[in-house]
Each structure stands twice: as structure tokens, then as C-alpha cells.
From TrEMBL:
GO BP annotation list: UDP-alpha-D-glucose metabolic process
Annotated family: Belongs to the UDPGP type 2 family.
Function: May play a role in stationary phase survival.
Entries under Gene3D superfamilies matching the protein: Spore Coat Polysaccharide Biosynthesis Protein SpsA, Chain A
Organism from which the protein derives: Marinobacter antarcticus
Record domain Nucleotidyl transferase: where: 10-270
Listed EC numbers: 2.7.7.9
Lineage: superkingdom: Bacteria
Protein name: UTP--glucose-1-phosphate uridylyltransferase
Length: 279
């Protein structure tokens, strides 16, 4: 059972400056909901109810978002606006939220290691909220729910992957693997942000992971890699030596909300396909 989900949210979000000068990128709204809330909803839909956040300086708004605002609730109680808080109130009522800090920004691997005390000795999910994912259709499993089902079958670490154009491999960790069945690979190699010539495939890792807890000991001894950061891909490659790291070509769609273009695309998608339909 995957019971916990970790959100590394310590990054500076420099691509969104000046918007992210005083506000975390994860709180930027996609239409009317902060980016991070979509990620939490996706994980809750996958049956996860314990959330851990690895934050940094200037990220308090995330903690406040997942807490009750008595003054605001009192203010709008009984008005037609009360229902606008229903989605976040539901999350607060049915889940727990814990926070720890990544004191120095030493990369995604280091951020995940910083969350060790929130996770303990359990397999867990990781969501990078700036990858906004939607499932393949109404009533069908979201991306994390698809991965949890696979975990229950294989009991291995799993990364979500998608095909990217050759000229974009330098933005991602890229895998090589043996095909196990349609859309599922056993990872044999992984390169962080390769040039198209050095990329082992066009299958790029996106921000959804299920990790077995031995990843923490591996991260402890993983030296800084590309860009001087402790890379989760380096630790996963080490873990893959036991033959138990899978890559899953998820069903659905992913928007790179860490970039302006992806963020605008996601906003248009949510407005047309989710917001308007809910009216
Ligand atoms: P990114 O590099 O995409 O996020 O990291 P960023 O640094 O916030 O964005 P830019 O490039 O400056 O615009 C991917 C994810 O990993 C987290 C980030 O918060 C983001 O969710 N991260 C990255 C950490 O929590 N700590 C780190 O040291 C690095």
C-alpha cells in the first residue's frame, strides 16, 4: 500500500519571476486553484491520505493553503461563496499535511532525502506539482492511481515517462529499458538532461514517482552529479542494478507548468475542460 506522498516544493521557480518573488510557484493558480492542490487531489484520488512537503524559505503560503482560515470562513459563511472552499476543505478534513525544510537547494535527490523523516520506512509517491497531469478521461484513473496499481503488482520503484521530441531531451532524465509489456519498461540506463546525441531514447521522466524506501540510503551516498546537484536519476540508476526500477508510459496528459508555455496551455485546458463544465 502506498500511504504517503512527498511534494518537493523548495525550488525558487525562477522562470516565473517576478511572479514568484514573494509567492511560491506552487501557489500560482491554474484558473481558480493553486497548482499544488491539483497534485494533492491526484494523489488523494490514488488512495493516499498522508502528505509531506519539503519546503524552503518563502513557502509559507503552501502551509497556509492546507490549513483552515477561520476568519475567511466566518466571513463567507452562509453566503453563495461558501462552496468555493469545498474542495480545499474536503482535502483538509480527510488528509494530513506535514512539512519539513530543505535548508540548502542541492537538487531534487537532496530534497527527497530531506523528506525522509516524514516518510519513514515505507514505499511512497513523489509528485512534482509543476508537472500538472490529467488522466485519460472521466471516470478513469489519474496518473498516480495508474502507478499505484502497478506498484501493487510489481513492488518496484516506478517512474512515469512520456515521449519527448529529440530537441527537448536536455530538459529531462531520459531512460533506456527493456520492454516488459505495452508501455512498461525495466530500466537499464538513465541519463540526466542529455543532448539529443547522448540520449538513450526519447522516453523522458516526468514528475511522478513511486519509490521504495531503500532509495534513502542510496541518496545518502549519491554524490552531486549534473549541475552540482544530487540527482534522483543517479540514485534510481543505482537502485535499478537490482532490476527493480520500472518506467511507465502513463495514460493521460501532462503539462509542464514549470514553464510559461506549459502553464498557459494548462490554464486553457482547465478553463475549457474542467472549469466551464463545472459551471
Ligand atoms: P525545477 O528545477 O523544475 O524547479 O525542479 P525550480 O528550481 O523551482 O524552477 P526554476 O527552474 O527555477 O524555474 C523540479 C522540482 O523539484 C523541486 C522544485 O521545487 C520543483 O518542484 N526542487 C528542486 C526542490 O524541492 N529542491 C531542489 O533543490 C531542487
Amino acid at each position: 500500500m502506498i500511504k504517503k506522498c512527498l511534494f518537493p516544493v523548495a525550488g525558487y521557480g525562477t522562470r516565473f519571476l517576478p511572479a514568484t518573488k514573494a509567492m511560491p510557484k506552487e501557489i500560482l493558480p491554474v484558473v481558480n486553484k493553486p497548482l499544488v492542490q491539483y497534485g494533492v487531489e491526484e494523489a488523494a484520488e490514488a488512495g493516499i491520505h498522508e502528505f509531506g512537503f519539503v519546503t524552503g524559505r518563502g513557502k509559507r503560503a503552501i502551509e497556509d493553503h492546507f490549513d483552515i482560515s477561520y476568519e475567511l470562513e466566518h466571513q463567507i459563511a452562509g453566503s453563495g461563496k461558501e462552496n468555493l472552499l469545498t474542495s480545499i476543505r474536503d482535502l483538509i478534513d480527510h488528509n494530513t499535511f506535514a512539512f519539513t525544510r530543505q535548508v540548502e537547494m542541492k537538487g531534487l535527490g537532496h530534497a527527497i532525502l530531506s523528506g525522509r523523516n516524514l516518510i519513514g520506512d515505507n514505499p511512497f509517491a513523489v509528485v512534482l506539482a509543476d508537472d500538472f497531469c490529467v488522466g485519460p478521461g472521466e471516470g478513469e484513473d489519474g496518473v498516480l492511481a495508474q502507478m499505484v496499481k502497478l506498484y501493487n503488482q510489481f513492488r518496484c520503484s516506478i517512474v512515469a515517462i512520456e515521449e519527448v521530441p529529440a530537441d527537448e531531451t536536455h530538459k529531462y532524465g531520459v531512460i533506456a529499458g527493456e520492454s516488459m509489456k505495452d508501455g512498461l519498461y525495466r530500466i537499464t540506463d538513465m541519463v540526466e538532461k542529455p543532448t539529443p546525441e547522448n540520449a538513450p531514447s526519447n522516453l523522458a521522466i516526468i514528475g511522478r514517482y513511486i519509490l521504495t524506501p531503500d532509495i534513502f540510503d542510496i541518496l545518502e551516498r549519491t554524490p552531486a552529479g549534473k549541475n552540482g546537484e544530487i540527482q534522483i536519476t543517479d540514485a534510481l540508476l543505482e537502485q535499478a542494478k537490482n532490476g527493480c526500477v520500472l518506467a511507465y508510459q502513463f495514460k493521460g496528459r501532462r503539462f509542464d507548468c514549470g514553464s510559461i508555455d506549459g502553464f498557459v496551455e494548462a490554464t486553457n485546458y482547465v478553463y475549457e475542460n474542467i472549469y466551464k463544465k463545472s459551471k
